[in-house]
Amino acid sequence: GAALSESSSEQAPDERRVLPQAIVIGVRKCGTRALLEFLGMHPQIKIAPDEVHFFDKDDRYERGLEWYRQQMPMSSPGQLTMEKSPAYFISPTAPGRIQSMNHTVKLLVILRNPITRVISDYTQTFTKKRSRNESCVPIEDLVIDSFSGEVNLRYKPIDISIYHQHWARWMMKFPRHQIHIVDGDRMIVDPLSELIQVERFLGVKPFLTTDNFMFNATRHFYCMRKPGRATEHCLGFSKGRTHPQLKPTVHQKLKDFFRLHNNLFYQLSGREFHWDA
Ligand code: A3P
């Protein structure tokens, strides 16, 4: 009876670990953690707690699919298993490797304004460096090449934000309908509308409602109210950092630079965003 199921750590008899049927492939700093955690509130979705980095890191990929399966959470037959590793999006090998695991796997990619993404990426590195008392270079000196005065393509956060070049590799391996794009800027201000679209894409029953999302005025972000829990759950303090303000001239240079790349992405993906407004 009740006493027995409580003491057996609530594991249903038909639970086991399976390879993921859906993967969040990126993009770094666009809200990948929030997306996965939000989806984890759904009773039909089980999420891997950590980034697995199986398809982008050769030494992990060499461990084989059985190792990968072991990194997945327990799930029941009616449930969907998911993981997120944002580095997959920019990895040259990940698309082919994921396709050879399962060519019908569903892929999710969350994007935000590419300039905001660069600033968020810089802020993450800056915060880490400062905590180690290392010297920090102002963002303007990294995004602009001091010799040419042009946008610095060798700065990795810039390269990551050129979405179309990475997107093109996925399009060579997967049909367009197998990848769903989540609007990360929108998910910050209206998570439910984005999550409803994801539920539909994944083919799970509509479950999430406004009750699952509570705006936290101190954090300036939505936090989760998980089913059966009284208290709300927010992401860690590494999510939602304060961003530095770019010098207007540098901001303008980045806007001019990304306009063409953004338009190429809109064309290739068939999804229009308003990043250049
Ligand atoms: P910032 O910390 O720069 O604001 P990722 O999980 O891919 O690293 O993305 C981190 C970003 O998720 C954060 O970037 C934040 O803007 C965004 N985010 C979206 N929804 C959030 C939420 N509910 N709580 C905290 N951060 C959220």
UniProtKB/TrEMBL annotation:
<feature type="binding site">
    <location>
        <position position="222"/>
    </location>
    <ligand>
        <name>3'-phosphoadenylyl sulfate</name>
    </ligand>
</feature>
<dbReference type="GO" id="GO:0008467">
    <property type="term" value="F:[heparan sulfate]-glucosamine 3-sulfotransferase activity"/>
</dbReference>
<feature type="binding site">
    <location>
        <position position="112"/>
    </location>
    <ligand>
        <name>3'-phosphoadenylyl sulfate</name>
    </ligand>
</feature>
<feature type="active site" description="For sulfotransferase activity">
    <location>
        <position position="29"/>
    </location>
</feature>
<keyword id="KW-0325">Glycoprotein</keyword>
<keyword id="KW-0732">Signal</keyword>
<keyword id="KW-1015">Disulfide bond</keyword>
<dbReference type="Pfam" id="PF00685">
    <property type="entry name" value="Sulfotransfer_1"/>
</dbReference>
<feature type="domain" description="Sulfotransferase">
    <location>
        <begin position="20"/>
        <end position="259"/>
    </location>
</feature>
<dbReference type="InterPro" id="IPR037359">
    <property type="entry name" value="NST/OST"/>
</dbReference>
<dbReference type="InterPro" id="IPR000863">
    <property type="entry name" value="Sulfotransferase_dom"/>
</dbReference>
<feature type="binding site">
    <location>
        <begin position="29"/>
        <end position="33"/>
    </location>
    <ligand>
        <name>3'-phosphoadenylyl sulfate</name>
    </ligand>
</feature>
<dbReference type="InterPro" id="IPR027417">
    <property type="entry name" value="P-loop_NTPase"/>
</dbReference>
<feature type="binding site">
    <location>
        <position position="120"/>
    </location>
    <ligand>
        <name>3'-phosphoadenylyl sulfate</name>
    </ligand>
</feature>
<feature type="binding site">
    <location>
        <begin position="239"/>
        <end position="243"/>
    </location>
    <ligand>
        <name>3'-phosphoadenylyl sulfate</name>
    </ligand>
</feature>
<keyword id="KW-0808">Transferase</keyword>
<feature type="disulfide bond">
    <location>
        <begin position="223"/>
        <end position="234"/>
    </location>
</feature>
<protein>
    <recommendedName>
        <fullName>Sulfotransferase domain-containing protein</fullName>
    </recommendedName>
</protein>
